[in-house]
Design goal:
Elements (H helix, E strand, L loop, with lengths): L1 E4 L5 E4 L4 H9 L19 H6 L1 H11 L30 E6 L3 E2 L2 E7 L7 E9 L14 E7 L3 E3 L7 E2 L4 E7 L2 E2 L5 E9 L4 H7 L7 E10 L5 E11 L2
């Protein structure tokens, strides 16, 4: 859903269905029902508030910020969703901090489609809710579940997990509960991902650079309560031998 600017200064609402919505509508069995909606502020540059102050900055954002049109691709729409908080004194929100295991090379997890053992390699990814200079995370921001968005063509989730949805961009979404909790109330998510066995033609199509030996992609993790988003760059290579 998006708002379109009109020459007569009228606001026109542009609503489109995502791929999942179209699938439900195409069933024609009554399963299509809009029961929830969300707002996002992907377009807003909050640095304007810091530069001009709350009053002038707010006015500049309202008058000068172009608004996106509605997008049908779920992986591109509403990266930063708005959340409702009952605590009027809250001034900070937590973020997702990332920890890799030894498979991360130069800060980027690297997976191989074929290892010396003859099978794809895997890596563990640990995300923790953190809040700078605070000793506790507000209960409304404690994520009980996370949405993990994977590039389904190249990477799979290790364990007994099935994707809730795979869109036409081949992005697979999993809803995964938190693994544990920190001493100050932050949720911890621990997942393991593995490369898939890919053909040479896949690398020829999606490979990066002249050698076509590496596919660059990303994993996106979103906290269901906090709305915090973490994009994790990841590389898939042909072989580590």
């Amino acid at each position: 859903m998006g708002f379109l600017d009109h020459s007569t200064n009228n606001i026109i609402l542009d609503a489109v269905l995502t791929d999942t919505g179209r699938q439900f509508l195409a069933r024609n069995d009554g399963s299509f029902s809009i029961s929830k909606f969300a707002f996002g502020d992907d377009e807003v540059n909050y640095g304007i508030i810091k530069k001009y102050g709350r009053t002038v900055g707010k006015e500049k954002i309202e008058k000068n910020t172009p608004v996106f049109e509605g997008m049908t691709v779920q992986s591109q729409a509403q990266k930063y969703k708005l959340v409702s908080i009952s605590n009027p004194n809250l001034i900070k929100i937590p973020k997702l901090s990332l920890i890799f295991d030894s498979a991360a090379v130069g800060g980027i997890p690297t997976l191989y489609t074929t290892s010396t053992l003859g099978k794809p390699t895997q890596t563990k990814i640990n995300l923790t809710q953190t809040l700078l200079n605070e000793n506790a995370i507000d209960v409304e921001f404690r994520d009980e579940t996370f949405i993990v968005d994977l590039p389904n063509l190249f990477v799979r989730m290790v364990g007994n997990f099935s994707p809730n949805n795979i869109d036409r961009m081949q992005r697979a979404k999993y809803v995964i509960p938190k693994s544990s909790v920190t001493s100050f109330g932050g949720s911890i998510l621990e997942i393991t991902v593995s490369a898939k066995s890919l053909t040479s033609s896949t690398f020829e199509v999606y490979g990066y650079g002249s050698a076509k030996n590496t596919i660059k992609t990303y994993i996106r993790v979103t906290g269901m309560n906090s709305g915090a988003v973490k994009d994790i760059p990841i590389e898939v290579k042909r072989s580590d031998s």
